[in-house]
Amino acid sequence: MGAIMGADVRIVAPRSLWPSEAVQSLARERASSSGARITITDDAEAGVKGAQFVHTDIWVSMGEPAEVWAERVALLTPYRVDAALMARTGRDDARFMHCLPAYHDQRTTVGRRVAEEFGLLDGVEVSGEVFESEASIVFEQAQNRMHTIKAVLVATLAGE
């Protein structure tokens, strides 16, 4: 969507999690006509420099076996969103986004288990400090998602 709308889209992740070459090619094609900028990098510091929004997701999706945690923690810890990473944007107006649920503390069973097993005491994919900061717009994002879904339903089901 960002490539179609002319946005500055940055994917910061280990190479093993990058989009397929077919998806990258399609994004570049769309970006060439919209003026979008597509960046895919495994360098977290370079990837967030100048970014207005930093968005992350949970590292293990619902339904995936618990055994994948060790692999994901090892792979993704360098990309964990904390205050230092947010500061690397170089922007006072940088905002943090997450589609939720987030393991930002030890108040859930999974959050507590991952903290104890892997030493991520201040959150997994995002630190509690960032999640609860003024920069965090995760709940506004969730509310907007609800209204967006309703609009898509109306647009697709209402007919002409």
UniProtKB/TrEMBL annotation:
UniProt xrefs under Gene3D superfamilies: Aspartate/ornithine carbamoyltransferase
Keywords in alphabetical order: Transferase
One Pfam family linked to the record: OTCace
Gene Ontology biological process terms, A to Z: citrulline biosynthetic process; L-arginine biosynthetic process via ornithine
Residue ranges occupied by any Aspartate/ornithine carbamoyltransferase Asp/Orn-binding domain in the UniProt entry: 2-155
Transmembrane segments: none
Name of the protein this chain belongs to: Unannotated protein
